[in-house]
């Protein structure tokens, strides 16, 4: 595995596992719990030691599955990210949501706690006092945000008593919004990691430029898309899959060397 550095100096894998739709989407699906727990443990053993989840995923059930899976490992060997939902960003609700997530994850702390989406009604001035307290008492190691624009990131930096670790946003070869809205540049200038979710979505794998470069190197298109992301300074990614072969393909992207011609062609993709 390759790593990049969080603002506090901690190393985080450049490739993590997104867990959306594992154990349900908006509501719990418990029909495959044993199978999915074993699969998550297998995935961790493959090298995916950063698991990204959220209280929203599976109507809280995904956190339960992650919690079951990580019991087979030393806690410090697994990096857990989870997220608080926008409707729970009030001061008391942050504490309540965090404690519930910790119970489901069967752990005393999370490595990274993110605001999943900004709220349209609850100001960040209510949220960050609780997040700061959670860091101070050890339940949260690091604080980050997700789906934040530059203005919200600036406000978060003012309110957070510790460095903002990451902004998790949708970013891939065909979705360059973080470049267009200045989020990527802001993160890179302020030593904040950008965590790219949905790196293979939206037609990326069938794009003609991507498939041509993949054919040139004799690799699946997904490896080209992942390597394009992680070769950028301060960018990591969290593709989601429950297919072991696809998961191994994604890991193998770490070995792919894209040359300047490849990168130039990929940078020029605009739709």
Written overview of the protein:
This protein is of the alpha/beta class and 271 residues long. It has one domain: TIM Barrel. Helices cover 41% and strands 15% of the residues. It has helices at 33-46, 61-70, 91-105, 124-136, 150-159, 177-180, 183-189, 208-217, 221-230, 244-252, 260-267; strands spanning 3-5, 11-13, 17-18, 50-52, 79-84, 112-115, 143-146, 164-170, 193-197, 235-237. The strands form 2 sheets. An 8-stranded parallel sheet has the order 3-4-5-6-7-8-9-10. A two-stranded antiparallel ribbon has the order 1-2. α5 links the parallel β7 and β8. The longest helix has 15 residues, at 91-105. 45% of the residues are buried. The mean pLDDT is 97.
């Amino acid at each position: 595995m390759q790593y990049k550095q969080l603002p506090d100096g901690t190393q985080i894998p450049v490739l993590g596992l997104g867990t959306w739709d594992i154990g349900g989407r908006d509501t719990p699906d418990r029909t495959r719990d044993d199978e999915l727990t074993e699969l998550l443990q297998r995935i961790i053993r493959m090298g995916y030691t950063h698991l990204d989840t959220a209280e929203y995923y599976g109507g809280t059930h995904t956190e339960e599955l992650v919690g079951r899976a990580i019991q087979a490992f030393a806690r410090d060997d697994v990096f857990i990210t989870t997220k608080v939902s926008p409707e729970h960003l009030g001061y008391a609700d942050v504490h309540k949501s965090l404690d519930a997530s910790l119970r489901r994850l069967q752990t005393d702390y999370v490595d990274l706690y993110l605001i999943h989406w900004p709220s349209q009604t609850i100001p960040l001035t209510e949220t960050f006092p609780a997040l700061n307290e959670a860091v101070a008492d050890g339940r949260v190691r690091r604080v980050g945000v997700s789906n934040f624009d530059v203005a919200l990131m600036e406000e978060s930096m003012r309110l957070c008593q510790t460095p903002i670790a990451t902004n998790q946003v949708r970013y891939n070869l065909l979705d360059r919004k973080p470049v267009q809205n200045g989020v990527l540049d802001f993160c890179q200038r302020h030593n904040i990691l950008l965590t790219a979710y949905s790196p293979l979505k939206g037609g990326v794998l069938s794009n003609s430029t991507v498939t041509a470069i993949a054919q040139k190197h004799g690799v699946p298109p997904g490896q080209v898309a992942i390597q394009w992301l992680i070769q950028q300074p301060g960018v990591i990614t969290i593709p989601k899959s429950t297919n072991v072969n696809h998961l191994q393909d994604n890991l193998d992207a770490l070995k792919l060397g894209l040359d300047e011609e490849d990168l130039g062609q990929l940078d020029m993709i605009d739709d």
